[in-house]
Design goal:
The structure is a single chain. By secondary structure, the chain is an alpha+beta fold. An 8-stranded mixed sheet has the order 15-19-20-27-24-23-21-22, with helices on both faces. Strands 2-1-5-3-4 form a 5-stranded mixed sheet, with helices on one face. Strands 29-28-30-31-32 form a 5-stranded mixed sheet, with helices on both faces. Helix 2 crosses helix 3 and helix 12 runs parallel beside helix 13. It is globular. The termini are far apart. The mean pLDDT is 93.
């Protein structure tokens, strides 16, 4: 027998081992008609899943966010069935069909067919037909050899690969059936196909089987899904808005950055205008860190093999590192992280308890091998600059240091126009290093720091790294997307590996606490997020060109040049459009370049030493004296105002 505490009834029950949610619901005489699945401890299960362990059970209905996992998993199967009905069961070979954050995908091989986005409506229609048929979705467990034989007969080579290499001997093998369609799957799934909600297929791309470039290239079909048509419509509208804001498109139009395959995929080149944005962010970052007691450091881009052996990167992270370089009989690696260098700076001489905390900060460029299929503009690159810092402190300083770091993160992100956050506290996993006392002190300091902000947070039990607990901060952009930014991470591993210590008040050696932290995560990714958040209309202080001067005729050029020089002297980034074009075209071009201010100069402005100020996104102009405008824009820049 197993014991289940059913949250919805606030009561404990005993059931035979192997009981299903369907059995439990039947015993409740239809009291919970809208249940589509359940959450057993931390696992989402469907009505057919045999329950073999005691625990806490919570029924899931369409109102529960977790129920979307069941919906989306079922739609992946419905799509796979649709493909087999359209292109022939014997021609379609199924890979994997997992859920995603907002939908699902399925990797498939279709003999003799290369799908395009134009094929998606046809597949959608077949899926809707299958949904209307209302097939009951049935789960069965079958012996291993029987499963292999079944899928061999269907020529499902990828399913056989999964059984042989991903499902351990002795583990149950389950299949799900709906009509004539059968698929290898753990679930969870809906009770029947007609319970499915609203969906849309959105794209087709290529994907190597198991993500390895030496394996066959399959076709990956993406879909999005929600319970209601309204939720789907809202999400699709957001996707359309996201396309308009795509930082790759805007970055090219505004000449901010480029990624050239001749140089290498995932390696960003900053063009002059993009370099200005980066300079402003980096200068502000350095000033703020110096003000808050950090010391700036710079470290090499490569390090000896022994360094990475000591840090453990070669044991645990080598697949993400670039290959070894042989130099003068020594092995070197380009750095994937800055941490070991900061440790060596700390260890460069003996440290006293009086020196702590030591806060070392660096805008350090690191290099990691990312698969070509995962690269995405500035968001996923192979070379990027981490706004890294490492705080080495005593136990009695931990709580205050964490609070200061979290406040720095939130203050910084707010200064760029982000004011909605999701905060996650990740705690100790089953396998970890470090003693219990250190874990408890570290975890409590993170918890207290979050609570001191008054913000809500979620606890990811057991979700911390093996070397320490952490805080993650996500920001919400202008169209409602969440982006991972700041991380505050304890590390009990490197201090041990590198034998870090300080001399305490008792003249004995003591192990310090070490805290990794990054505010932006990476400069490249954060700038990509900024571009999309503002749709390219960056605040004045970040804009590569802050003012465009537009003389109406050539006779106004002399005065326009004087205004340009005066603005430049006052450290305003300004350009003069002296082309022989109509004024309206010049204004339109400046708008397309998303320049905050246009200064139109004609006869009246020359006579009165003034400018006609046109602000981005607004019609009409405002007449201001040159001195008044300069004072106005200087204040906007100094105060880092987000609006003008």
């Amino acid at each position: 027998m197993i014991s289940l505490y059913i949250e919805d009834l606030n009561q404990n029950f005993s059931f035979p081992e192997g009981t299903t949610l369907k059995d439990i619901l039947q015993n409740l005489n239809g009291k919970f008609k809208d249940v589509v699945g359940a959450k057993l401890n931390d696992e989402i299960i469907d009505i057919h899943t045999p329950i073999k362990n005691s625990g806490k059970l919570k029924f899931l209905t369409k109102k529960d966010p977790e129920s979307l996992e069941i919906l989306r998993h079922s739609l992946a199967h419905i799509m796979a069935q649709a493909l087999k009905e359209i292109y022939g069961d014997e021609n379609v070979h199924l890979g994997i069909g997992p859920t995603t954050e907002n939908g699902f995908y399925y990797d498939v091989e279709i003999e003799g067919v290369r799908l395009t986005d134009e094929d998606l409506p046809k597949i959608e229609e077949k899926m809707k037909e299958i949904i209307k048929r209302g097939y009951e979705i049935v789960r069965e467990e079958i012996p291993r050899q029987e499963a292999i034989k079944f899928f061999e007969n269907k020529k499902e080579i990828y399913k056989i690969d999964i059984i042989k290499h991903s499902i351990p001997e002795g583990e149950p093998i389950s299949v799900y059936k709906q009509g004539d369609f059968v698929d290898l799957c753990r679930g969870p799934h809906l009770p029947s196909t007609d319970k499915a909600g609203a969906f849309k297929l959105i794209s087709v791309s290529g994907a190597y089987w198991r993500g390895k470039e030496t394996n066959p290239m399959l076709q990956r079909i993406y879909g999005v899904a929600f319970w209601t048509d309204k939720e789907l419509k809202d999400y699709l509208n957001m996707l359309e808005e996201a396309k308009k804001r795509d930082h790759r498109k805007i970055g090219k139009e505004l000449e901010l950055f480029m990624i050239d395959e001749e140089v290498g995929g995932g390696l960003a080149i900053w063009l002059p205008k993009g370099a200005i944005i980066r300079k402003e962010i980096e200068d502000t970052w350095k000033e703020e860190h110096l003000k808050r007691g950090y010391q700036l450091v710079y470290t090499p881009h490569v390090g000896k093999e022994h360094l990475w052996q000591t840090s453990g990167h070669l044991s645990f992270y080598q697949e993400n590192m670039y290959p070894r370089m042989q130099i003068e009989e020594e092995g070197y690696y380009v750095k994937p992280m800055n941490c070991p260098f900061h440790v060596e700076i700390y260890k460069s001489r003996q440290r006293s308890y009086k020196e702590l905390p030591i806060r070392l900060a660096e805008l350090g460029t690191v290099y990691r091998y990312e698969r070509s299929g995962t690269l995405h503009g500035l968001m996923r690159v192979r070379g990027f600059t981490q706004d890294d810092a490492h705080i080495i402190c005593r136990e009695d300083q931990v709580e205050e240091e964490i609070k200061n770091v979290l406040n720095l993160a939130l203050d910084t992100l707010k200064s760029y126009g982000f004011d909605e956050f999701e905060i996650y506290l990740s705690t100790r996993p089953e396998k970890s290093v470090g003693d219990d006392r250190m874990w408890e002190i570290a975890t409590q300091s993170l918890k207290k720091a979050i609570e001191s902000t008054g913000l809500d947070y979620k606890v990811d039990e057991g979700g911390g790294a093996f070397y320490g607990p952490k805080i993650d901060v996500k920001i919400k952009d202008a169209i409602g997307r969440m982006w991972q930014c700041s991380t505050i991470q304890f590390d009990f591993n490197l201090p041990e590996r590198f034998d870090m210590y300080y001399i305490g008040e008792d003249n004995q050696k003591h192990r310090p606490y070490m805290i990794h932290r990054a505010i932006f995560g990476s400069i490249e990714r954060f700038i990509g997020v900024l571009i999309e958040h503002y749709a390219g209309f960056l605040p004045v202080w970040l804009s590569p060109v802050q003012v465009k001067i537009i003389p109406i005729a050539d006779k106004h050029l002399e005065f326009a040049n004087k205004v340009k020089d005066f603005l430049s002297e006052n450290k305003v980034r300004v350009e003069l459009d002296d082309r022989s074009e109509r004024m309206n075209k010049k204004i339109r071009d400046a708008e397309l370049q998303k320049i905050p201010f246009m200064l139109v100069i004609g006869d009246k402005e020359v006579e009165t030493n003034s400018v006609a100020v046109r602000k981005k996104g607004k019609q009409g102009t405002e007449i201001m004296s040159v001195d008044s405008f300069v004072d106005y824009i200087k204040n906007l820049i100094k105060e880092k105002k987000k609006e003008i």
